[in-house]
Amino acid sequence: MAEKEKLTIAVLSGDLERALAAFMLAVTGASMGMEVSMFFTFWGLNIIKRNEGSIKSKGLMRKMLNLINRGGSRRLKLSKFNMFGLGTWVMKQLMKDTNMPSIDEFIAMAHQMGVKLIACTTTCGVMGLPPVTDTFRSEVESLAGAAYFLGEARQSKVTLFI
Amino acid sequence: MAEKEKLTIAVLSGDLERALAAFMLAVTGASMGMEVSMFFTFWGLNIIKRNEGSIKSKGLMRKMLNLINRGGSRRLKLSKFNMFGLGTWVMKQLMKDTNMPSIDEFIAMAHQMGVKLIACTTTCGVMGLPPVTDTFRSEVESLAGAAYFLGEARQSKVTLFI
Amino acid sequence: MAEKEKLTIAVLSGDLERALAAFMLAVTGASMGMEVSMFFTFWGLNIIKRNEGSIKSKGLMRKMLNLINRGGSRRLKLSKFNMFGLGTWVMKQLMKDTNMPSIDEFIAMAHQMGVKLIACTTTCGVMGLPPVTDTFRSEVESLAGAAYFLGEARQSKVTLFI
User: Which CATH superfamily is domain C12-36+49-161 in?
Assistant: First the structure.
């Protein structure tokens, strides 16, 4: 049996539009029979951070960073024209209007379709996040570092850095 | 005859510097004998939106988004140091000074060299744009979705996400 | 003897987090036995610009651009939550705390591990920088254009655009 072609997506950005693009491609790739991995790093960790509950992080710096950068799929904003939330709100209306899934729906869909969601351990530290599975949503399969990402990318037909 | 190597570029950003980078690479790839496709999505749609005339979009949300995000190749700005247009103006002067083509010239050049310009249908909706060829410049060959992009990327020697 | 697999990274961004991601991947790739090239363009040129001394650029436009965009590895900022330097300072504290190398240390490390650092000639002009090796740190091996980058990318197992 032929092995599946791989698609590996690194998501560094936590902007709403880049998160949407990443999930559209991941879900489309999976539906085309590709084996898809998404690797979340830096602001991208915001996308897969738990929405509910607060994260217990040690030290003043981490507490500060978690206060100004709360994260979670429902707090993602557009990189432009956010205008105190108005631009992001307009786009979310248009998403509903054109039947585009929300980020929460995309995460559930991707998970069901076998897309592997991986949190970058190396950058949890500088983002003030405890590098444990509890920090992230239940759909997140594992935590791994840059070597794991490059290992996947080397075997991939398509690698995207978003 | 050997098949041409493919270069596929996804352009999500509408920032002047990223648009320039995308076209430099597309035009260089074509001049090296590669078969080049550019796939514009989200803010990248601004680059290939018609400059003249207004777009007839239905509904208040779409009208609002088109008002705040007019788009068109001549309205692209730098992502940093725009400073109410000053930074962008300075860079445009330096572009002239160093004989770098403008975005309009790059689009014409790319089109003449056989670079395929494709607008993403899936994101037209959330950007408040009617997903028809009339929305875009005449150089834009077609509209297509994420599956088309991934299909091209799978066959490509180089895929870039800009 | 088998040839080494190549990793080619284009760095367009001058944001601290993207610079860090690029160097983490470059250094990890080199440690995995890959042959790594980093190609700096547009704001990415800021990362490898000399920290000390001023750059002698001719013409008012270039002088202006160099004044507002001083560059250098120690002036890189976060793309978000910079908050007049506070956010960037917090992240730099967390980098120390988690033993993550600074950009200066990453550049030295990458250079020692044989990672090739290349400055993009084509964009030096529009960034107001003289396209000579003197503009950049001593670790920068050479200057080259878009054709060189695509040539490397065509031979690479993994190409990333950051």
Answer: DsrEFH-like (3.40.1260.10)
